[in-house]
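Need residues for this backbone.
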């Protein structure tokens, strides 16, 4: 394998993946819609260095565009698709459920159909820890029953996992679904908590915290996620689901305290009511990924925060 399509390749995780693949002298076809969920200029900055690489090709467009996908697949002999394109965000999905299902589910089906037509049968799909909902069983395991999503975003990601299995069953696609657990790091989307909090504390603005501070997340540094994604390349066969997380939970209060420590600056905190659609706790059971992918997260939460803060200051984010 040496030619890859990365959907959502100009986004936070996608651009890191493109850079890593290019560093291995592999050919990367990047498809991104540069939508207005956040400032498209951020995505363009993400791929600024990639654009100078002769092995990188950019297509601007939507994964729901059948003609565009057929054009890409007819021009390039693509060995594998990394499908990261999606409408992101739990809270906005509650306001715009139709849009989320159209982009995430219909977009995925359109992509799978184009792959089938052009005899491309290898796919790595970016799923989400949100599919577990408010499960009382901690840590979350790939074997858990997950039939109670609490946001349209989560439901759309689970629907995508199911349709991926259908294409594996019907057409013998090799598909691994990777459930990412709260990824953070340089290039992180501006509306995500760590990004907002770092920016607010740096500029002496109010940090709004929802709930009582005890909610927790399995925060995973982006370099660990990219390492996990790339490890799949040597194991992609059949259909599997893997958790990619850190295997540890950080409370909201611990997160703010860590940012304060790294910045050496106190936050101005305003407490607000818990938000509907948000899960109370996430933590990944990563034993399956360790066993089959040799996936072992290398970065501590504080190390990741420091890298993000350094990047944020350097880029005046």
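Answer:
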């Amino acid at each position: 394998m040496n030619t890859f399509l990365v959907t959502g390749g100009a986004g936070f995780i996608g651009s890191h993946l493109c850079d890593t693949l290019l560093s291995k002298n592999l050919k990367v076809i990047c498809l991104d819609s540069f939508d207005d969920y956040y400032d498209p200029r951020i995505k363009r900055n993400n791929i600024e260095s990639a654009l100078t690489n002769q092995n990188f090709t950019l297509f601007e467009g939507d994964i729901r565009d059948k003609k565009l996908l057929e054009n890409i697949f007819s021009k390039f002999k693509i060995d594998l698709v990394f499908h990261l394109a999606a409408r992101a965000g739990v809270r906005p999905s509650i306001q715009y459920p139709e849009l989320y299902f159209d982009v995430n589910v219909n977009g995925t089906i359109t992509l799978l159909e184009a792959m089938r037509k052009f005899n491309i049968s290898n796919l790595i799909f970016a799923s989400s820890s949100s599919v577990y909902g408010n499960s009382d069983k901690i840590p979350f395991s790939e074997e858990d029953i997950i039939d109670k999503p609490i946001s349209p975003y989560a439901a759309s990601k689970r629907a995508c996992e199911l349709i991926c299995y259908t294409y594996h069953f019907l057409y013998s696609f090799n598909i691994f679904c990777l459930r990412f657990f709260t990824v953070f790091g340089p290039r992180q989307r501006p509306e995500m908590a760590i990004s907002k909090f770092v920016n607010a504390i740096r500029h002496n603005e109010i940090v709004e915290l929802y709930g009582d501070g005890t909610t927790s997340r399995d925060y995973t540094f982006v370099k660990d996620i990219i390492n996990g994604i790339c490890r799949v390349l040597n194991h992609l066969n059949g259909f599997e689901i893997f958790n990619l997380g850190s295997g540890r939970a950080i409370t909201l209060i611990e997160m703010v305290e860590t940012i304060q420590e790294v910045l050496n600056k106190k936050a101005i905190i305003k407490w607000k009511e818990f938000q509907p659609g948000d899960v109370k706790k996430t933590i990944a059971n990563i034993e399956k990924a360790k066993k089959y992918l040799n996936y072992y997260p290398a970065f501590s939460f504080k190390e990741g925060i420091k890298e993000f803060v350094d990047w944020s200051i350097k880029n005046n984010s």
